[in-house]
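Table 4 source record.
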Amino acid sequence: MDRDQNLARFLQSDGRTVILPIDHGTAIPVPGLEDPTGLIEQLNPVVDGYVVNLGVAFAAADALEGKGVCLRTDCYKPRYGDNLDEGSYRLYGADEALTCGAHAMMNMLYTHHSNEAGIFREAAELISESLDADVPVILEALPFGIGRPDDYTLENIGFTVRAAAELGSDIVKTAFPTGASADQFRAIVEACFVPVIVLGGAAMGDDRALLEMVKNAIDGGAIGIAVGRNVWQHPSPAKIAKALHAIVHDEATVDSALKCLS
């Protein structure tokens, strides 16, 4: 498949996407992901694609058939104790993506991180590899690192999203800026010349807050979402995934989407 065909595996006819990241097993404890294949089979009706590590790409290959498969190419380790905070470091590339049948690759891009130089170089090397392999790249662009909502300001997110596009990312995945409105986010999307999708972050435990954030992101021009923990750590993963699908693909209101949970 060429680059456009690979990207199309994640998109429905409306040009939007619901992606489920289940790539957390190399980074953090993962209660809720004990059976990734079973989770994929359960959520396939309302999920367009998945972000997976190489092991899951092989182990769950049958369940992933027909869906967009995005290979996580780095390990995004949060700081732990006195360990050196490298932020993100590459593990795989285009060869592994082609071997496991992935349609895209995902790597972190942390702007302003102490290891920014290394992270930028690795992201650029991945994009360079992708040009020959025709496997698109989704850069997960976050200021300073993962799980830093105080740093996810409009200015910081805006710069980071544009930097990812400038490096050559096919799609940019980012956080919805803390406290932002749909119109404020739209200014960021319009200043980015590639599509933008929004992540979910840590499990909120607040269905309305999650759906409102996603609604603002879609109203602000995002083409979709990549929400993981807020789905597979939810008491009813299939129901919350259906609610997210309704907002992204059916333009449902938050109140209407909440009815999927009843």
